């Protein structure tokens, strides 16, 4: 991750807006944030953390974000441009703060806000991603990957937390390293292998169960019937009982339980052979019955065929007589159809002739009406198409010149009234301009009075800072005093809980001792129950058991012992928890009382009340100063606005006068044009209406004359075409044509009747000529009843034989399918066992199971190797910084000698002067600083070299250099200078003056006498 640019306003001690371009500042790889203690250096790092996570770094309170030195209405914000492997982004955040209400008096709380953009580069405007605080937080969590605690351990190392990674517990180091190196895939792989092991183990067990189920299916299939068994005689490997009869079902079950594949195959083959032999015998019996039934059926079919042919011959003769009787009516219908077919093509011409006659009549009536209408508009002598067309064109041309003047004439009264109103408004505007000029001339005197009053409140900000500090201290004491009172009751409750837990633990221990005593006392009876005649005793080895012991009523079982042990362990755990809770509450109570300084809640409240009164007076002075300053600003702004308004008013007055003169001139011109155009008419509108009516009458008469001529020609053509069509169809006239026409339903009915008669005649004739009919005389007698009885007897015999054969074949198929399923289940079990072996082996290695000699899971092993690389990279710099004295070592225990649940992520320091290991907590302040710095830089080196890891391109170090001696400081600065070779940048935060001589690129923070700060950049 690399930080490019930071902008802030009204944040902490910075009331103004400041921008830091880290790309320019860190061009040399190293830059300094310097200034006096408390000036605001750490606030810049807090601003970076707040922009990314919405909260401050370290233990800082978010209340210190909003600057007390800024104007109350100025919104505090932080804007950060940064880049990661996911791209370049710009985030803007504003914390929750209190501001004056925009309307009325008092204040209101402005909630926190946030925005996020994705950029093409660090100076691009970008594309908006979100403008909601929750969504921005979620997106930044995905982009930055590290949470706030991990970020402050690897990228931003705030004051007081620089050594947190060095002193972190192994579990916390594991979380940081896992996020930084992106090794979650190994955790997921480890979990997936464990799941696969459970799956394949379940598969093997399921395959074994399938073998047992398939064996039961074979037993059920091969034992169907009252007298059937799995097999008829002993086969290879068959066991028999003491009476000499075999038990194939038990043998099959035993072989399945033992998963004995060869024995299962032999038993399955024997069962199939027996049922296949039975199936062959039943099939031969059924074949003989089928032959007898076929012969009987053939004789019965011959008798039935003779009877059917005699019946068909009688029906055909009856149909022939009926067709002869209907022949004359069918011939008449065929003649009527022929006449209708000749008339059908001529019918459309008859309809067209009627339409032409109707058109001619309508056209003549329309022309007579048009002649009457034309006479009313001076068109009596105008006749013929050409004369009418000229009259229409002349009227249309005249109308084109009148239409625009109709609109002009309608608007003349409104325009005259508008001109009068404009002249009156011009006179009023001139008077207002004179009043505004007088107001502008009187404003300088008021400004001098405001400036004089502001001078009385110059020191209000400093007094407010002192009052705020006093109130914060009083509130902290009051908070601690109240918490101390509240904490007293939980301490008493915890002490009582500890007493009860101790009593419960003693009771559980006594109960466990009693159960174990009863369990030992009853062991003889338990062992005696397992004895049987001839079986050796587990204690003495003898086979005679003359007087075995008997269980007593007080005997305790293994379950009783386990339950008592679990109860005792649970009571011990509760006792430990109660002890830890009491210790924690007691320590917290002591700390609260120390913070309260021995004051009671009442005394602390009095102190807070006094501080509140002092702050109230100071804030009133600050508010009055701000009000006066705002009044001066508002006064100047209003003066500027009024002066601009006066200039605009004078310009507007001149423009308005010119516009009124132009409107008066145009109005006079349009009145003259309208008077000339209306002529003798009362208005232009009336003149236009007369001309439009003459044009319409001429056009209507022209169209009616043309239509009457066209209708006469169409009627003549229709007469000629109808006469020719009647002659061609051999029809006398139109009346004969109308009589010959048939509608579609009548024609279809006649055609269907003629066609049906012809088809029936052909069918009957063909039937009488059929070979099986033509040779019959009608005197034949079929013997169908006797043939049917013989066939019924043969079919009953076939049914019995087929039923027996089907039953045998079904049982044979069942045995064959069941044995096939059993053998398939045996093969599946073998394959499942072979497939499961490598998965179980791999899962055991990845999850620290059997065969893993390191007793370390895969995910932990990967982190161990990465952590070793971090320690090695840190030691490269630590050797130079400590002059060869110190080196970091990875250990499997926690710092302090306790065993870690996550082995391998512990740290200790090797002191080569004494060759003894040291706990990191025993290092001095300066030693802790440069050892932690080496560890942080080593982590950045390894992450940078790891493909897919998080790029740590920017690192901030807040304080710690003042604890180094000159020689060590030289070594530390030399190592930091090497960072520029890798393209990284380190920001050093320090107030030590010597650092300014060593680092030329810096941000200088300076405090004003008012308490506010500003900053300057030096590249």
TrEMBL record:
<comment type="subunit">
    <text>Heterodimer of SbcC and SbcD.</text>
</comment>
<dbReference type="InterPro" id="IPR038729">
    <property type="entry name" value="Rad50/SbcC_AAA"/>
</dbReference>
<protein>
    <recommendedName>
        <fullName>Nuclease SbcCD subunit C</fullName>
    </recommendedName>
</protein>
<dbReference type="InterPro" id="IPR027417">
    <property type="entry name" value="P-loop_NTPase"/>
</dbReference>
<feature type="region of interest" description="Disordered">
    <location>
        <begin position="222"/>
        <end position="246"/>
    </location>
</feature>
<keyword id="KW-0175">Coiled coil</keyword>
<feature type="domain" description="Rad50/SbcC-type AAA">
    <location>
        <begin position="5"/>
        <end position="188"/>
    </location>
</feature>
<dbReference type="Pfam" id="PF13476">
    <property type="entry name" value="AAA_23"/>
</dbReference>
<dbReference type="Pfam" id="PF13558">
    <property type="entry name" value="SbcC_Walker_B"/>
</dbReference>
<comment type="similarity">
    <text>Belongs to the SMC family. SbcC subfamily.</text>
</comment>
<feature type="coiled-coil region">
    <location>
        <begin position="561"/>
        <end position="628"/>
    </location>
</feature>
């Amino acid at each position: 991750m690399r930080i490019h640019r930071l902008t802030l306003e009204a944040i902490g001690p910075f009331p103004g807006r400041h921008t830091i371009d880290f790309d320019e500042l860190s061009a040399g790889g190293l830059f300094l944030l310097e200034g006096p203690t408390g000036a605001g250096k750490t606030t810049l790092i807090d601003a970076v953390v707040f922009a990314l996570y919405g909260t401050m770094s370290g233990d800082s309170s978010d209340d210190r974000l909003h600057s007390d030195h800024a104007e109350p209405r100025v919104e505090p914000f932080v804007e950060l441009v940064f880049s990661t492997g996911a791209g370049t982004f710009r985030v803007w955040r504003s914390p929750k703060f209190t501001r004056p209400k925009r309307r009325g008096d008092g204040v209101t709380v402005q909630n926190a806000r946030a925005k996020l953009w994705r950029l093409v580069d660090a100076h691009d405007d970008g594309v908006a991603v979100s403008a909601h605080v929750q969504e921005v937080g979620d997106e930044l969590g995905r982009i930055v990957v590290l949470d706030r605690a991990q970020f402050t351990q690897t990228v931003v190392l705030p004051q007081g937390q620089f050594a947190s990674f060095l002193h972190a517990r192994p579990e916390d180091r594991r979380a940081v390293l896992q996020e930084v190196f992106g090794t979650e895939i190994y955790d997921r792989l480890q979990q997936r292998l464990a799941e696969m092991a459970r799956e394949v183990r379940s598969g093997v067990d399921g395959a074994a169960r399938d073998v047992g189920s398939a064996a039961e299916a074979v037993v059920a299939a091969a034992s169907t019937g009252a007298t059937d068994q799995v097999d008829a005689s002993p086969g290879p490997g068959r066991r028999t009982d003491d009476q000499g009869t075999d038990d194939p079902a038990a043998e099959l079950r035993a072989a399945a339980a033992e998963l004995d594949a060869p024995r299962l195959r032999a038993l399955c083959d024997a069962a199939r052979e027996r049922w296949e032999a039975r199936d062959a015998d039943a099939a031969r019996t059924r074949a003989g019955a089928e032959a007898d039934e076929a012969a009987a059926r053939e004789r019965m079919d011959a008798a039935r065929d003779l009877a059917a042919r005699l019946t068909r011959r009688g029906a055909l003769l009856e149909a022939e007589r009926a067709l002869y009787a209907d022949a004359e009516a069918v011939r008449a219908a065929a003649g009527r159809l022929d006449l209708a077919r000749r008339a059908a093509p001529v019918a459309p011409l008859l309809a067209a002739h009627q339409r032409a006659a109707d058109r001619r009549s309508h056209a003549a009536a329309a022309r007579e009406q048009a002649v009457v209408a034309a006479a009313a508009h001076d068109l009596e002598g105008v006749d013929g198409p050409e004369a009418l067309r000229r009259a229409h064109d002349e009227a249309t041309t005249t109308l084109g010149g009148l239409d625009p003047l109709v609109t002009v004439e309608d608007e003349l009264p409104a325009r005259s009234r508008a001109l009068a109103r404009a002249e009156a408004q011009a006179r009023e505007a001139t008077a207002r301009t004179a009043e505004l000029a007088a107001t502008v001339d009187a404003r300088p005197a008021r400004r001098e009075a405001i400036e004089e009053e502001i001078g009385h409140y110059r020191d209000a900000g400093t007094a407010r800072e002192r009052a705020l500090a006093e109130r914060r201290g009083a509130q902290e004491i009051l908070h601690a005093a109240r918490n101390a009172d509240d904490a007293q009751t939980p301490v008493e409750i915890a002490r009582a809980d500890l007493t009860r837990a101790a009593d419960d633990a003693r009771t559980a221990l006594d109960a466990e001792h009693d159960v174990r005593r009863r369990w030992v006392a009853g062991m003889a009876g338990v062992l005696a129950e397992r004895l049987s005649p001839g079986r050796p005793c587990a204690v003495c080895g003898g086979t005679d058991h003359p007087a075995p012991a008997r269980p007593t009523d007080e005997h305790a079982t293994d379950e009783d012992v386990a339950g008592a042990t679990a109860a005792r362990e649970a009571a011990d755990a509760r006792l430990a928890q109660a002890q830890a809770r009491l210790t924690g509450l007691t320590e917290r109570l002591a700390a609260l009382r120390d913070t309260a300084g021995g004051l009671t809640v009442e005394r602390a409240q009095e102190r807070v009340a006094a501080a509140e009164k002092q702050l109230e007076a100071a804030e009133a002075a600050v508010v009055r100063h701000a009000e006066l300053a705002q009044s001066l600003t508002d006064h100047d702004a209003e003066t500027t606005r009024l002066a601009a308004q006066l200039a605009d008013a004078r310009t507007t007055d001149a423009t308005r006068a010119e516009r009124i003169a132009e409107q008066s001139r145009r109005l006079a011109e349009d009145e003259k044009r309208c008077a000339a155009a209306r002529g003798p008419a009362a208005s232009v509108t009336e003149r236009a209406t007369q001309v439009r009516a003459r044009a319409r009458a001429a056009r209507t008469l022209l169209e009616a004359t043309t239509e009457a001529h066209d209708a006469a020609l169409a009627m003549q053509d229709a007469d000629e075409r109808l006469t020719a069509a009647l002659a061609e169809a051999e029809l006398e006239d139109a009346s004969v044509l109308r009589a010959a026409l048939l509608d579609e339903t009548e024609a279809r009915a006649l055609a269907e009747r003629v066609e049906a008669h012809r088809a029936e005649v052909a069918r009957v004739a063909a039937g009488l000529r059929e070979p099986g009919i033509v040779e019959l005389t009608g005197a034949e007698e079929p013997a169908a009843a006797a043939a049917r009885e013989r066939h019924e007897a043969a079919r009953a015999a076939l049914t019995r034989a087929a039923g027996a054969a089907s039953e045998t074949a079904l049982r044979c198929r069942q045995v064959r399918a069941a044995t096939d399923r059993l053998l398939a289940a045996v093969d599946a079990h073998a394959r499942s066992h072979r497939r499961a072996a490598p998965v179980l082996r791999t899962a055991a290695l990845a999850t620290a199971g059997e065969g893993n000699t390191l007793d370390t899971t895969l995910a932990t092993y990967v982190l161990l190797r990465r952590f070793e690389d971090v320690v090695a990279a840190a030691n490269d710099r630590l050797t130079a910084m400590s002059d060869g004295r110190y080196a970091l070592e990875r250990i499997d225990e926690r710092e302090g000698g306790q065993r870690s649940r996550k082995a391998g992520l512990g740290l200790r320091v090797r002191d080569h002067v004494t060759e003894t290991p040291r706990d990191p907590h025993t290092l001095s302040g300066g030693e802790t600083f440069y050892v932690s710095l080496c560890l942080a830089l080593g982590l950045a080196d390894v992450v940078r070299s790891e493909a897919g890891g998080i790029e740590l391109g920017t690192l901030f170090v807040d304080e710690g250099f003042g604890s180094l001696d000159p020689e060590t400081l030289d070594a530390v600065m030399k190592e930091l200078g090497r960072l520029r070779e890798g393209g990284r940048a380190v920001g050093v935060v320090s107030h030590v003056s010597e650092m300014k001589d060593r680092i030329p690129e810096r941000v200088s923070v300076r405090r004003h006498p008012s308490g506010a700060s500003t900053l300057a950049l030096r590249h």
